Structure prediction request, 827 residues.
Amino acid sequence: MTLAAQILATTIILTTPILLAAIGGLVNRQGGIVNIALEAKMIAGAFIAIVVSSATGSWLLAVFASAALGGAIGYVFSLTITRANANMIIAGLGLNILVAGLLGFLLSRVYGTSGTLRLPDVHLLPKIFPESVSDVPLIGPVLAALDPLTLFAWLAVAALPFLLANTRLGLRLRAAGNAPQVVRSVGLREKSIQDFGTVFAGIFSGLAGAHLSLASIGLFNEGLSAGRGFIALAAFYFARNRPVGTALVCLFFGFLDASQIRLQTAGLPPKLIGTLPYLMVILGLCLAAWNTKRKLQA
Amino acid sequence: MSPEHPRTDRSVSTRIGARDISKNYGLVQANHGVSFNVTPGQIHAVVGENGAGKSTLMRILQGLERPDSGTVILNDEPVQLRDPQQAIRLGIGMVHQEFMLAPELTLLENLVLGDEPMRTIAGPIAIVDWKKALTEARALEKRAGVAIDWNRPTATAPVHIQQYVEILRLLRRGNDVLILDEPTAVLAPQQVSKLIALLKQLRDQGASIIFISHKLHEVVALADHVTIMRRGKAVASASVDELDIAAMTRHIMGDAPADPSEQARAAVVLPDARRILRVEGLCAVTVDRSQALNNISMDVCLGEIVGIAGVAGNGQEELMECLAGLRSMSSGSISLNGAELAGKENMDFRRAGIGYVSPDRAHEGLARLASIADNVMAGSQHAPAFLKGPFRNLPAVGRAARQRLANLDVRYGALSDPVSSLSGGNQQKLVFARETASKPQVLIVSQPTRGVDLNGIAAIHAILRQHCEGGGCVVLASEELDELIALCDRILVLSEGRMVGAVRNEDATPETIGKLMLASGDGLEMAHV
Prediction:
């Protein structure tokens, strides 16, 4: 009973960074840009969160800094695609490598360390509810683990379908992704609309990074994001850009991640168990593709 | 009057026009001193062959291109159009041949896109007011006199409804200059007359309408005034009452021979009674599992051209793809000379003697960046005659390519030029040169004259006739009813994936076929065969 509740609580927390990045990537893709550089913005967000949290002692400023850095990287990334006509996949790959390289450089040059950055006085994300809620049966551990970014992520999931359908920006974004020439022909600037989508994805990936480093560990490591930006990509592909479906897929990946930690303590080889979520992504995408093919041939 | 506040003003003599416009692309003179005037409340047809400069002129009027010299006139005053946004603000709206509607959005979303009615919910936060949008849509719908299901995803709406939505969107935004680029190409005859009625009604309300067309009888039926373009110049401009179709044709063609499709009618040989291609109970489904083809049966005899008619998107394309072995069928049979082809692949269809001319020349018919030689020889690359050991025998390939191109009189620069350097008509003739080289018995030909000028059309029609006279047969799908009527011995009509009728050549008129095209596929008895 308590084990199940604990796995559930871990699942919720491990889902948050994937979910935040997936929301960003989903909006971006509805606007017509496949953003494979979520990973880059995530790891940059995780880094800046530690630096700012340590320097200011404020988790909130750190979160804002992550969002701002993610958004700024996203904007530059978008310009290379919409204005300089770079191929979005190649540019995304390049950005992932570039950011990882720059961070490694910064770590060794500025902080004189390699791989891991530990700074003093890092303030972690607070918990929303006091410790005592964990006594509530069933959902107690989940409530106790809730942090502001997790709550924000799920509120975003709930609001997103409405916003996409009923706001001017949402409508124009979907139109830009579906038929950019149509957007142009009605006198709108489709490139600016797409830029918005990429900045949005940057902000949310930055937040995802902040959650990675500030939720519990309080330090930065070069391998911290561990491909979660790509898992997020798989999540909204898998759910065909539907917000709620995407959230459920993220939750599933979070669950695999959580049970993987539990299985490791049960004595199974940790590296092998660690591959489980990634294996499931490949399996899931194959199943989705197979399903489409089956429908085509029926 | 400020040009930023256009709208209908009947006091001006030119609502929109051009004065002495010239535009060059490199050495090509697309427009050469073109002038024309459209008054408020006038339907003005612009006709001419492909490449005559119509599109360039329209692009200039929409602000997509700037003229090298000359000016655009709006409300009697010269104006410099910087970009399409400005043209839209000035009331100039374009109905494109490829509709400018986002397929995944609903019709209502497309209607309001770019000018959404908003509703404040709190302070500065506003959301789209869908209720108001629907009210506006209903009012426009009434004005056009059609019923529209506004919440339908655009991709699933019939083509003529999409066209209405595109026109209504322009009206909603106050555009009173409408430019329509071949608007009837996608419509059935009855829908054409409805469109003509709507456009006349809009004209009577003061709109200025520019109408680009290849079909002269529509020009006569619809337009008040016609401007004819040839080789970048406006060669004639007159009231429609003053120019008959014969005179228009003379202006369009210059000194080229007059309408060739009429000439060879008498020479059509009677079909041999031997049925070589048999289709029975053919069914096929689309991606979303809807039935694209439902129980199609047909025969094609030697020496015969069989036409396939239908409003775009009623299964013609799928049928042609099945006949070419490019689409898998869910049940039924296709046999050629008694040999079953169901379940086989395109290569087997080709070996059995079936050639295919795709409607999508740019993507399926040709490899656009590859050379002329490679395009015309594609499919023959493994023939022993064109190989030398493991390598291609390039001299032999070159000789054969030149021979094939010469046979069908394809005009080209050099064999190594990319095929995209050819004009539309010559590209299509090249496709025919390739497809007929292996002497197939059956040619499956889809939309062969799309985007081809009048001389090219005549040449392609001659190729099809020759193929039949030489003992082959043709299945021809075309959106041009005139073309089907001129060429085909029988015309089969598809509606909603079913064969709803067959018409013999002597009974075929746009009206009889049009009526069948609009018939619902459900529970309908086959019309006379």
